[in-house]
Amino acid sequence: MMATALLRPGSTGDPGQRAAGRRRRDDAALRADLERLRDAHLHRARRLLDGPQGVRPVIDGCRVLSFCSNDYLGLAAHPVLADALREGARRFGVGSGAAHLITGHSQAHRRLEEDLAAFVRRPRALLFSTGYMANLGVISALCERGEAVYADRLNHASLNDGALLAGVRLRRFPHADTAALERMRAGGDAALLATDGVFSMDGDLAPVPALARIAEAADARLLVDDAHGLGVVGSGGRGTLDVYRKLGWDDDGSVILVGTLGKAFGTFGAFVAASDAVIETLIQRARSYIYTTALPPALAHATSAALALAQREDWRREHLQALIARFRTGAADLGLPLMASATPIQPLLTGDAETALAWSRSLEAQGVLVTAIRPPTVPKGAARLRITLSAAHAEQDVDRLLALLERLPCAEERQNCEDSSA
User: Fold this and answer.
1) Are 66 and 363 in contact (CB under 8 A)?
2) Residue 187: CB partners within 8 Å, gap ≥ 6?
3) What CA–CA distance (Å, rounded) separates 379 from 172?
4) What is the spatial distance between Cα 39 and Cα 47, in angstroms, rounded to a whole number?
5) Of 20-29, 167-176, 292-301, which gets the smallest average pLDDT?
6) What are the two backbone dihedrals, phi and then psi, of residue 382, each rounded to the nearest 5 degrees?
7) Cα torsion through 187, 189, 191, 192, rounded to 10
8) What are the tens digits of pLDDT across the range 29-59?
9) Residues 193, 145: contact at Cβ < 8 Å?
10) Is the Cβ–Cβ distance between 387 and 202 less than 8 Å?
11) Is the dihedral of CA 6, 12, 13, 19 positive or negative?
């Protein structure tokens, strides 16, 4: 009876009341933290897209000219892909219904894996639901707890998270600095070197040949996440590795390649391409592959169509390169602080988050959408506008963007802007 009295509703000993109090305190702390994010200009909000992806989407009810999508080839709403998706749904249904290792692996998946392996010139490819899951799967399956993984400091978060979740010793080397990498690992072990192919926020290419030499000397594997290179650079869009092949690098097939399908190819999903032994090991050990439902087969069917279209229509890459050159020439004429990039990712440095937001809002008020990228996505002091170009853009679109950038706040004092981005 005494215990019942002590725990009656409303008493200080009531577990339910104590839990409610903790929730209130926790929510108060969360709200305070959210306010701190707003005060620091780091709070993020989702935008609502009404209709298909494209360079002139309807966002939050307004038609805008967009320079912030990863739809580099303009395929996300292409009618050929839509038709293939409908055909795939008729043939294979909508959902896969199970994991790949149960009954979810369809003929559409097998065909796409074969198409992707042939495209990137690797013996086999393995589909994953997302690029994030692919990177988690590779690192956890191929590295033992406590082993050393060396990663470029500007790698995508999924590579870092994959290393942390695998329990390895993650060592991050300065961006693209292979000399620093060699000093860091001199005399030590290395199970894996990991890098983006095209860096998602800077737009530059990783020094793959030098990294491959270091990996070979260290008896380590090299993982290249080419999410932003495949479909865009290289012959037929074969990506960063192909860029270096054409420059004389001997690709012996040892590099493990990760690619995504929701950027240049316009659909969804990801894949890993590597040797037969690596792929078979992933099937047996990659938890992010084993314990998840397979990608919808209709999407796999549509992606095979996208892959064929992307290879066939070289004019998309040619037009995209012309737009990149036009934009960079115009930006140089205006003295804009662009970072060095020959890819569709064109970062315009602002330095602080407040300026990045102000510039983004100024452009949006005039009907042009460019995302402000702020910490922690980029290092502190390296906030920017991440301008991305698409083959669906026209020259007039680039010219309009340049005209608006010229009139941004602080544009008449360009040197001061450049100093603030240092």
Assistant:
1) no
2) none
3) 14
4) 20
5) 20-29
6) -120, 30
7) -40
8) 889 999 999 988 888 888 898 989 999 999 9
9) no
10) no
11) positive
Single-letter residue type at 405:
L
| Closest to 369 in 3D by CA, of 334, 340, 404 | 404
DSSP string of 369-422?
E-EEE-TTSS-TT-EEEEEE--TT--HHHHHHHHHHHHTSTTGGGHHHHHHHT-
200 flagged as catalytic: yes
Greatest alpha-carbon pair distance for the chain in Å reads 85
Phi-psi region of 93 (alpha: psi -120 to 50; beta: other; left: phi over 0): left
Q: Which of 30-39, 200-209, 215-224 has the lowest mean pLDDT?
A: 30-39
Q: What is the reported pTM?
A: 0.88
Whether the Cβ atoms of residue 119 and residue 238 lie closer than 8 Å to each other:
yes
Q: Token pair for residue 95?
A: 């959902």
Residue 11's pLDDT band, with cuts at 50, 70 and 90, is very low
CATH number belonging to the domain at 79-312, selected among 3.40.640.10, 3.20.20.140, 2.40.160.20, 3.30.70.1230:
3.40.640.10
| Selection from 341, 324, 312 nearest residue 391 by Cα | 324
The residues of the chain that CATH labels 3.90.1150.10 are 58-73+314-420
Give the single-character DSSP code of 268.
Answer: -
Residue 312 CA, distance from chain mean position: 24
pLDDT digits (tens, 9 = 90+) for 138-172: 999 999 999 999 999 999 999 999 999 999 999 99
Nearest Cα to 69, choosing from 212, 228, 276? 228
Question: Tokens 């491959």, residue?
Answer: 212
* Cα 322 from Cα 371, distance rounded (Å): 22
- The dihedrals phi and psi of 295, each to the nearest 5 degrees, come to -50, 140
Residues of the chain with CATH 3.40.640.10: 79-312
Asked about 263 being catalytic, the answer comes back as yes
- Of the listed 109, 228, 301, 393, which one is catalytic? 228
Mean pLDDT calculated for residue range 245-250: 96
Tokens, residue 389 = 């170009």
Residue in this structure with the two tokens 């707003």, named with its chain if needed = 38
Structure tokens at 69: 């999508």
Residues 58-73+314-420, CATH architecture: Alpha-Beta Complex (3.90)
The reply to whether 106 belongs to the active site is no
Which residue out of 100, 263, 301, 393 is catalytically annotated?
A: 263
96, 106, 200, 288: the catalytic one is: 200
Q: Residue holding tokens 């249904």?
A: 93
